[in-house]
């Protein structure tokens, strides 16, 4: 099999695993009463970034 195809398949598998873990963590946090948003764009001192999870509790952003 072509090396580039193998690398692409491997990368897609890692992305899928990471997304599954992110979604499971988000579900667990929601079950504890947190408000959770996935794939949120935020401006940082290093430029714009996408956060996997943005977690809130009682109106307070827990990541800032």
From TrEMBL:
<protein>
    <recommendedName>
        <fullName>DUF4325 domain-containing protein</fullName>
    </recommendedName>
</protein>
């Amino acid at each position: 099999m072509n090396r580039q195809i193998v690398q692409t398949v491997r990368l897609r598998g890692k992305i899928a695993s990471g997304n599954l873990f992110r979604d499971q963590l988000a579900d667990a946090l929601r079950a504890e009463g947190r408000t959770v948003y996935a794939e949120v764009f935020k401006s940082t001192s290093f430029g714009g970034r996408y956060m996997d999870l943005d977690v809130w509790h009682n109106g307070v952003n827990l990541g800032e």
